[in-house]
Amino acid sequence: MSLKTCTNLSPTGLLLIDKPCDFSSHDIIAISRRILGTKKIGHSGTLDPMATGLLILLIGREATKRQAEFLKLSKVYSATLTLGQETDSWDAYGEITAEKNVPPLTQTDVEKAAQTLSGDIEQPIPFFSAKKINGQKMYSLARAGEKMERKFNRVNITWTKICLTSPKTVEFTVHCSCGTYVRALGYLLAQKLDTVGHLTQLRRLQIGPYHVAQAFDGAQLKQTQAETLYKRIISL
User: Would residue 48 show up in a list of annotated catalytic residues for this protein?
Assistant: First the structure.
């Protein structure tokens, strides 16, 4: 699929952004709306503020009408799991809620643990997530101290790489179905290794056929002119 310049005042298509850390996906959408002068911008799945990597923006009416289609695309992530401490959000932005000694581990141990979490699995949904309960986002309820029943969803997981890089650190890459919370995978993997853990790095590499290597550097977005972004829009 080639990149085509949109010269009209109502561009439509896909804009691939490499989201930097500490920006929310909605920050990126708001900045892009201002630059492109359009309110019609959707997405193919948000990223947590800690996460970096591929964010697909759906620009214009024709693109946003296909949002459900793009949300269903599979994804590829790389992540780093730090063992020994669990946080309430299951990532580095949360508060520590549990600590547990990390047993002596081998590469074989982590590979076997990952194998038990391959294929179709039931995954717990993090309380600090955008999933809604009775119309309210779970992270809002969690921040307010509301008690919630743990929810689960069924996802499909393929581990394409997993490596024990230090006694307390596991790096991995997964290909997963839509609806996957990689933080939850880290939580489950730590349990399989008889300890606790949380993600300290998360990067989305791919959504369907679209790769982060194609994406515009989101760290440069605020200083970018509309014409530059027009040239990066992929026609549908």
Answer: yes
* Rounded (10°) angle between helices 107-115 and 182-192: 120
Q: Report the alpha-carbon distance of residue 202 to residue 37 in Å, rounded.
A: 31
The tokens 């730090």 sit on which residue? Answer: 82
Nearest to 77 by CA among 52, 46, 43: 52
pLDDT digits (tens, 9 = 90+) for 144-183: 777 878 889 999 999 999 999 999 999 999 999 999 999 9
The span from the CA of 170 to the CA of 79, in Å, is: 8
pTM of the model: 0.91
Token pair listed for 53: 């990597």
State CA 125 to chain mean position distance: 13
Residue with tokens 């393929």: 158
Helix and strand totals (H; E) in the chain: 7, 14
Q: Tens digit of pLDDT for each residue in 38-78?
A: 889 999 999 999 999 999 999 999 999 999 999 999 999 99
Hey, what are 139's tokens?
A: 């992270």
The catalytic position among 22, 48, 91, 109 is 48
Radius of gyration of the chain (CA): 19
Amino acid at 36: L
Beta strand 13-19 with 210-211: parallel, antiparallel or unpaired? Answer: unpaired
